[in-house]
Specification:
Layout: E1 12-18, H1 21-33, E2 38-43, E3 46-52, H2 56-66, H3 73-82, H4 93-106, H5 109-137, H6 145-150, H7 165-186, H8 188-210, H9 218-234, H10 244-259, H11 268-294
Length: 295
């Protein structure tokens, strides 16, 4: 059984079976978010979704809407917020095609462009061009107009360079998840503004503290974290939310970097300024709306 049942199996009844594991989990998570107990079981290489006894008709209506567009943002967000884990059963290429479809459905053009650029730079680095690439895109050695007009791309360049597989995997996973949600709900222009604000502010701040030898999307990641965190607080109707445990973990990770107990070098200033920039943009965008709704 994929879900840890919130009620005994006797209180659940079969609703529908599907051939794709991801779709079954996505819908089951959404039912749980609608206060309908649910689980998924494997039967004859199909995935049977069970729903709470007595709520079959409601669940069936929800499923009829769900199956028309299972990649709608509200279903993705419910699965993320519910934080369910499952043992994925792979029955062939359908799993990978479904994963690809969901991956692309969640991320818009801006999200995918940044994601791909980061990985292209990383692949080039591990193929032996790390030093050359870093020399081409690292931040300015001095904040002068001459350097800016000579190589303006260096203002953003460091965000695309990562030093390890764990570094880029962590950053691009969060960027895809949160940046994709922002782009889908708030639009491309909003995500571009957030990317530029958090990247520039975090890069400049980190340079002033430690010089030009830094890299990574972490400042931008903390920017999207701050934006989604405050958007969920100021404008929950937008559907941008982060659970309190996740926010707490990311803030605790930020604090650990500043107290210098981690075995890796952290661009702490970039993280902090990225977070502040994301919170600020969300406040700027939604604060007046929150005041009007409270009056």
């Amino acid at each position: 059984m994929d879900h840890s049942s919130q009620s005994s199996s006797e209180s659940l009844e079969p609703l529908v079976s599907v051939t794709q594991h991801n779709i079954a989990l996505l819908f089951s998570n959404y039912l749980v978010s609608q206060n309908i107990d649910s689980s998924v079981e494997v039967e004859d290489q199909k995935f049977v979704i069970f729903c709470q006894h007595g709520k079959y008709e409601i669940a069936r209506e929800i499923f009829d809407d769900f199956i028309k567009n299972p990649h709608d943002e509200k279903y993705q967000q419910a699965a993320w917020s519910n934080s369910e884990t499952a043992n994925v059963v792979n029955f062939g290429p359908s799993f990978f095609s479904t994963f690809k479809q969901q991956f692309l459905a969640h991320a818009g053009l801006v999200t995918l462009s940044v994601f791909i650029l980061c990985w292209l730079v990383y692949v080039g680095s591990i193929l032996g061009w790390q030093r050359n690439i870093f020399n081409e895109i690292h931040f300015f050695t001095a904040l002068t107009s001459a350097q800016f007009f000579d190589s303006p791309f260096r203002l953003l360049g460091p965000v695309f360079f990562h030093f390890s597989l764990l570094h880029i995997a962590f950053n691009t996973m969060w960027w895809w998840q949160l940046g994709g949600s922002i782009e889908k709900i708030m639009g491309k222009v909003e995500l571009i503004q957030l990317f530029l604000l958090s990247a520039i502010l975090s890069n400049v701040g980190q340079f002033l503290v430690s010089g030009p030898n830094f890299g990574g999307l972490s400042g931008v990641v903390y920017g999207v974290v701050g934006y989604v965190w405050w958007a969920g607080w100021l404008a929950p109707e937008k559907g941008l939310t982060l659970s309190k445990p996740i926010v707490g973990f990311l803030l605790f990770w930020l604090l650990l970097g500043f107290v210098d107990v981690l075995p890796v070098n952290m661009a702490n200033t970039a993280h902090l300024l990225g977070l502040v920039s994301g919170c600020f943009l969300a406040w700027f965008r939604f604060a007046n709306q929150a005041k009007r709704s409270s009056n």
